[in-house]
Amino acid sequence: MEIKVMANILDKNDQIAAEVNAQLSRRGIFVLNLLGSPGSGKTALLERTIAALKDELSMAVIEGDLFTDKDAERIARQGVPVVQINTGGGCHLDASMVRGVLDRLDLERLELLIIENVGNLVCPAEFNIGEDMKATVLSVTEGEDKPLKYPLVFKQAGAAVVNKIDLLPYTSFDLAAATEDITSINPQIALITASCRTGEGLEAWYDWLRGRVAAKKAAAGRKGE
Amino acid sequence: MHEMAIAQGILDIVLKAAADNDAAAVVRIKLQVGEMTEVVPEALTFCFSSLAAGTAAAAAELEVEVMPLVGRCRDCGREFRVERFRFLCPGCGSAGVEIISGRELRVEHLEVE
């Protein structure tokens, strides 16, 4: 006997992600899912972002990591609330993990929640975790072939940060080719080239975040009226 | 290896559908997996067989249909096969292209006895 099913395999996760997003959206909180390879500079970007924006925006961070809380310690030193999720070897965060820690954050007056995913360009791309948008960090030391090898993380991202551009003279990274590939995968993406070490280019990233937070707040205000 | 989480999702769907239809055993599972998904069919098959051991789906064969990546231009309406992940309309050059196939992760049907 044949049974027609036509069921989406990730439906359960997507439903929980929608619940998480609804809970945060009611308060007008912009939720960013930050993706990238291990060592691409996700945590460094977060440190810079917190230092630049913490007086202006009320923010909190959820740190996804396999086993350690090393990144969470770095974030805590920046003086914003941080919650650690250890996946115990799991290669990605899923929506139920995020739902499980939301009660450890004070959501009152929070404007920006950044969730740093496990360092990986493959697995996290398939799992929504309640975010409004994804942003993907790619460092020039990884090579310009990565967008075409892992197109999904670029297709789904609202912004891509090409990091470590201070190292361009010491690599064979072809910035023009990377730009061409990223923007043909995702013509709407905000592409930002920056160095989290020198700070070059980061103003564009802060502006992008400010814009997203303001848009989310405006949308929540309209709904609340 | 996120194929484990995806395999668990498949098994949950399959066992529920089998139970709803009073099936004793699942013989075949037909999946649709889009070209633009981060799933390796061999890894998925391996994960599924280890998770399904001891269940009604233990002996089930997984059949994967790879769904091509197809876009549709919002401006001129053209539908086209997306090559090298270039989401630009080959007809009018528009960047307003939506994906109409290629992101599937779906259990299509089961064969049970």
Q: Percent range for helical residues of chain A?
A: 25-40%
Broad structural category of chain A:
alpha/beta
Mean pLDDT over all positions of chain A: 96
- The number of distinct β-strands of chain B equals 6
The largest pleated sheet of chain B is described as: 3 strands, mixed
Number of domains of chain A: 1
Our estimate of the beta-strand percent of chain A is 15-25%
Cα radius of gyration of chain B in angstroms: 17 Å
Sheet with the most strands of chain A? 7 strands, parallel
Short key terms for the protein model shown above:
heterodimer; A: 225 residues; alpha/beta; Rossmann fold; 7-stranded parallel sheet; B: 113 residues; alpha+beta; hypothetical protein PF0899 fold; 3-stranded mixed sheet; 3-stranded antiparallel sheet; 27% helix
Task: Please give a structural write-up.
The complex is a heterodimer of chains A (225) and B (113). By secondary structure, chain A is α/β, with parallel strands linked by helices. Chain A has one domain: Rossmann fold. Chain A has eight helices and eight strands, in the order E-H-E-H-E-H-E-H-E-E-H-H-E-H-E-H. A seven-stranded parallel beta sheet of chain A has the order 4-3-5-2-6-7-8, sandwiched between helices. In chain A, helix 1 (11-25) runs parallel beside helix 4 (95-101). With 113 residues, chain B is of the alpha+beta class. Chain B has a domain at 3-69 and 101-112: 2-Layer Sandwich (hypothetical protein PF0899 fold). The model of chain B has no long low-confidence stretch (mean pLDDT 96). Classes of the chains: A alpha/beta (225), B alpha+beta (113). Strand 1 of chain A pairs antiparallel with strand 6 of chain B.
